[in-house]
Amino acid sequence: MDKNSDEVVTKPTLGTILERINALSDKVIGEISSLRAEFISLREEFYAFRDEINVRLDRIESMTNQTRAEMLTLRADFREFRTQLKESMA
């Protein structure tokens, strides 16, 4: 036997080419499906994160309004104290 007979490369037939194309198509479809699933998962995580941020912003707004109300009350108390102090010194 000739040493070169083991290294002979045959040209692919039309059937082989079509099989390779189908395999490549299956691989691409699998990758697209995987990407779609990952995208859906990321979208769901984003929506959950967005909802959490909205809740936190509502809490911050509530605390800000409460603090503002307390500051207004404190300011009114201080004005009342100043008025009483002026009256008592007069």
- Alpha-carbon Rg, integer: 38 Å
Please tell me the overall pLDDT.
91
State the distance separating the first and last CA atoms: 128 Å
Helix fraction by DSSP (H/I, runs of at least 4)? over 70%
Q: Secondary-structure element sequence?
A: H
Q: How many helix segments? A: 1
Strand content: under 5%
Shape: rod-shaped
The domain tally reads 1
Structural class: mainly alpha
Question: Spans of 5+ residues with little confidence (pLDDT < 50)?
Answer: none
Number of strands: 0
Largest sheet: none
Describe this protein with a few key phrases.
single chain; 90 residues; mainly alpha; 1 helix; 0% strand
Describe this structure in words.
This protein is mostly helical and 90 residues long. The mean pLDDT is 91. Helices cover 84% and strands 0% of the residues. It has one domain. It is built from one helix and no strands.
Short description:
The chain is an all-alpha fold. It is built from one helix and no strands. It has one domain.
Which helices and strands occur, and which strands form pairs?
Blueprint: H1 14-89
